[in-house]
């Protein structure tokens, strides 16, 4: 599998990242191990999680995903050398954390993540959400720099920011002589495009910032398995699909079906392949709860969409 440079981190990664939000939620530890084993067996090598996953599940408090990944790494001899681990700080159940992105909070949170993961260093550490406390970028980036100097993290990234915020962080890093964010994690998929395309995408390309997209399949809508309200019960994420069931969403599914049929692939594989081919995107993040879904990832990585395919998908909602 051909790997891609992840911005200026020095990492080369396979073109799809596993989304670890399912660990401790829709997958227990045994099933998580099976899916992760299959993921690596298919040639993939990067896992994304966060310290808050999966706090939204009744009875959970956050950190369950990191704990399962750590148990898997411990149970698989030599696996740590084969995979890159991404995690995040500064969120709780999908919202900014009350501790913000202050130096004091970050320096404590990273040690908790390292302990749960059972690793000496996190490969890529993300600021999960913009800081609700208004902590200066220089303080946050300074904390990340201290962690890099201490060998606790290797690279830094940011999620859920717009072009103005990312630009301001780059300027603050230059003014303070600090390393800037090297990777962006935005919400981006065939349905949700406006938040990334345009100024933010252009900035990432010009600054050579790696991009790994989340909600790459729009919470499963772009797999094509949700066509009506009656389909919501097909998974634990079904309740979040209603916002996509509109004329625009159905037009996108129709085009996906046509391109998928042409290639003998699934709508999910085509959706992921489209992301892999978008300017500036290093790799989409996608979750899986079965071996068959991992096989879809492999199909997507091998799928070559031509100019006509890309144009049809780009204009699917026109």
UniProtKB/TrEMBL annotation:
GO terms for molecular function: oxidoreductase activity. Transmembrane segments: none annotated. SUPFAM superfamilies: NAD(P)-linked oxidoreductase. Residues 15-317 form the NADP-dependent oxidoreductase domain. GO terms for cellular component: cytosol. This is Aldo/keto reductase. The lineage of its organism: Bacteria, Pseudomonadati, Pseudomonadota, Alphaproteobacteria, Rhodobacterales.
């Amino acid at each position: 599998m051909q790997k891609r440079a992840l911005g200026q981190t020095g990492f080369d990664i396979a073109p799809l990242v596993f989304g670890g939000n399912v660990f401790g939620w829709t997958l227990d530890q045994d099933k998580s191990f099976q899916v992760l084993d299959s993921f690596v067996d298919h040639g993939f090598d990067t896992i994304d999680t966060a310290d808050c996953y999966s706090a939204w599940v009744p009875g959970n408090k956050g950190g369950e995903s990191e704990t399962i990944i750590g148990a898997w790494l411990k149970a698989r001899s030599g696996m740590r050398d084969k995979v890159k681990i991404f995690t995040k700080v500064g969120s709780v159940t999908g919202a900014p954390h009350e501790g913000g992105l202050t130096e004091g909070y970050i320096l404590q949170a990273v040690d908790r993540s390292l302990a749960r993961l059972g690793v000496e260093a996190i490969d890529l550490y993300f600021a999960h959400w913009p800081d609700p406390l208004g902590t200066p970028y220089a303080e946050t980036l300074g904390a990340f720099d201290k962690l890099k100097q201490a060998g606790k993290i290797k690279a830094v990234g940011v999620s859920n920011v717009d072009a103005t915020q990312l630009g301001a962080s780059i300027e603050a890093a230059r003014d303070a002589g600090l390393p800037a964010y090297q990777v962006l994690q935005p919400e981006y998929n065939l349905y949700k495009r406006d938040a990334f395309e345009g100024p933010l995408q252009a900035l990432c390309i010009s600054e050579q910032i790696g991009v790994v997209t989340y909600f790459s399949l729009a919470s499963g809508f772009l797999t094509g398995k949700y066509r009506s309200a009656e389909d919501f019960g097909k998974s634990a994420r079904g309740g979040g699909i209603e916002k996509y069931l509109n004329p625009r969403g159905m037009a996108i599914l129709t085009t996906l079906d046509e391109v998928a049929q042409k290639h003998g692939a699934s709508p999910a594989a085509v959706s992921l392949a489209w992301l892999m081919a978008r300017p500036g995107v290093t790799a989409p993040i996608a979750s899986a709860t079965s071996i068959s879904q991992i096989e879809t990832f492999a199909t997507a990585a091998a799928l070559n969409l031509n100019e006509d395919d890309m144009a049809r998908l780009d204009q699917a909602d026109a």
